[in-house]
Amino acid sequence: MNLMTNILLNVIIAFLIGSLLFGLQRKIMARIQGRPGPPIIQHLLHTLKFFIKESAFPYTAAMPFYIAITAMLSMIWVAAVIVGPVTGGSLLLIFGIYAVHKIVEHNAGSSSGSPYGKLSCVRAVYSAAAEVPLFAVLVIIYFKTGTMNITSLINYQAVHGPLLYAIPLAALMFFILILSKAPYSPFAITKGKDIVSGYETEHFGLLRGYLMMSESIAWYMLLWVFLTVFLGPISIPVYLIGMVVMSSIIAFINATTPLLNPNHSIMMQVTFAFVGIVGSFALLMI
Amino acid sequence: MDITILGSQIIGIIPLGDIVFYFTQFNLFMFATALAFTAIIAISKTETQVEAEFGKLGDRAVTVAKKEFKIRRFLAIICGLATAGAMITGDLFDFTLFVCLTGIVNIGIVGAVRQVDVLDAAYQYGLIAMMASLPLFGGAALILAATGTISLLAINTLAYTTPMMILGSILLFIGVAGETGVAPFFATKAEMFRTPGSPFLLIIHLSSLLILVRLIEILLIINKPF
């Protein structure tokens, strides 16, 4: 297949599946809480709706930074799709993309001048202190396998079996990271409803559409990285089942837990990261 | 070019005497990201923060004064370029110098703000950054003493890790954590971010996280798998 077609196809798949998984999460959460909930396709329709809505820009915003930051979020997650499913490139690069995602999350909030966005921005700085160490557990994979290349990692697992069994604590830490990025998660402090929609509060129309599209792709990519890195060579149906199962488990957790206070959220994530890193190294040494 | 770093093929190197820049997919992306953000910052205005007045019903607009804007933008651009340099350098000592430079200009970016709380946070960050320069350069020196080189391409070819290299790596990590103000020093930084000037605050956050990610690559090059 032509490379450009491959990229386009994978980005569209990531967007559609990511959006539907978000819809599924909301549906499951609603049923657990005794509500009928929106249809599964709602998140996708919601995203598409923003692309045809009129765009408005706050007069207090830092231009053109306010617009560029949204474009940057879309570009980095398209880059993640290219690095991951399309080329099977460097896992370290996906780590870098995640770090840039945290930066964009931070500045999408502060660039509008809104106090809600600003609070989200400050919380994004706090949460980066916890989420980056959680993502850093992927370095454990290097100490186990000797490579950070995704294709090589798949080949390694084809010979030695899934890394999920070899380094379970690292897998758990990565799962906590994915949980942190889910809407309504106990760790989703940057988009807590106490600050309206956090860093998205002052983004309307097309810009909001791009933000939501990027989040859907990001969700798909985080699940894809987890399944690829910890389960190894699996078929497309197993990928789909894995993504649905993980999204359902996360929906159950989100439906039954409150949003944590920012300080508690960070301390809990840092504790998980500490246990994960130290525990995984201990398991590798014995 | 048949050199592999952490499973990624090197795309190219730029030898400038004993300073060597190298590019893999990872380094190229990080370098391009740092430059792209620097370019956006260079052409952006700052936002106006709208804050509620205490004890009244009115709002208050907090803006960045022109004089303050100019100096902060200049320092932000320097910070962006230093971060970009740290992403592609193949020399451990150069990396520590770039990190040190970002630490200095980060303090300057917030030090130009005329708000007592922000200046207080910048002062505390400055103290940490100064103290962190000892383990930063000490770590690099220990790695040089243990391997005989500060070239990451040369260290990449070594098949062993000695206890001295591990100690050097730990010191390097502490040094970078202090210079960039990442956890456990982020609480101070979050206070600095309450001030207006979103594009300039971005570069502080960007430099910290990108340098931290690059540091992880460097530590993985120095410390071999089990």
Present the secondary structure layout.
The complex is a heterodimer of chains A (286) and B (226).
Chain A: H1 3-32, H2 42-51, H3 65-86, H4 91-110, H5 115-135, H6 138-145, H7 150-160, H8 163-166, H9 168-181, H10 205-231, H11 236-256, H12 262-285
Chain B: E1 4-5, E2 8-9, E3 12-16, E4 19-23, H1 25-43, E5 49-52, E6 59-62, H2 66-88, H3 92-111, H4 116-147, H5 152-157, H6 163-180, H7 186-192, H8 198-222
Helix pairs in contact in B: 1-2, 1-8, 2-3, 2-8, 3-4, 3-8, 4-6, 4-7, 6-8
Task: Please give a quick description of this structure.
The complex is a heterodimer of chains A (286) and B (226). With 286 residues, chain A is mainly alpha-helical. Chain A has helices at residues 3-32, 42-51, 65-86, 91-110, 115-135, 138-145, 150-160, 163-166, 168-181, 205-231, 236-256, 262-285.
The percentage helix of chain A is over 70%
Enumerate the strands of the largest sheet of chain B in spatial order, edge to edge or round the barrel: 1-2
Radius of gyration of chain A: 19 Å
Describe the global form of chain B. Answer: elongated
String of helices and strands of chain B: EEEEHEEHHHHHHH
Amino- and carboxy-terminal Cα gap of chain A: 45 Å
Please count the helical segments of chain A: 12
Structural class of chain A: mainly alpha
Query: How big a fraction of the residues of chain B is strand?
Result: 5-15%
Overall pLDDT confidence of chain B: 83
Nearest-integer average pLDDT of chain A: 86
Tell me the number of structural domains of chain A.
1
Q: How many extended strands of chain A?
A: 0
Q: Give the low-pLDDT segments of chain A.
A: none
The value of Rg of chain B in angstroms is 19 Å
Class derived from helix and strand content of chain B: mainly alpha
Verbal overview:
The complex is a heterodimer of chains A (286) and B (226). Chain A is an all-alpha fold and 286 residues long. Chain A has one domain (3-285). Helices cover 74% and strands 0% of the residues of chain A. Chain A has twelve helices and no strands. Chain A has helices at 3-32, 42-51, 65-86, 91-110, 115-135, 138-145, 150-160, 163-166, 168-181, 205-231, 236-256, 262-285. Chain A is globular and about 60 Å long. Chain B is mostly helical and 226 residues long. Chain B has one domain (4-222). Helix content of chain B is 66%, strand content 10%. Chain B has eight helices and six strands; from the N terminus they run ββββαββααααααα. A two-stranded antiparallel sheet of chain B has the order 1-2. In chain B, a hairpin with a 6-residue loop joins strand 5 and strand 6 (59-62). In chain B, helix 3 (92-111) runs antiparallel to helix 4, helix 3 packs antiparallel against helix 8 and helix 6 (163-180) runs antiparallel to helix 8 (198-222). Chain B is elongated and about 70 Å long. In chain B, 49% of the residues are buried. The model of chain B has no long low-confidence stretch (mean pLDDT 83). At the A-B interface, helix 3, helix 4, helix 5, helix 6 and helix 12 of A face helix 1, strand 5, helix 7 and helix 8 of B.
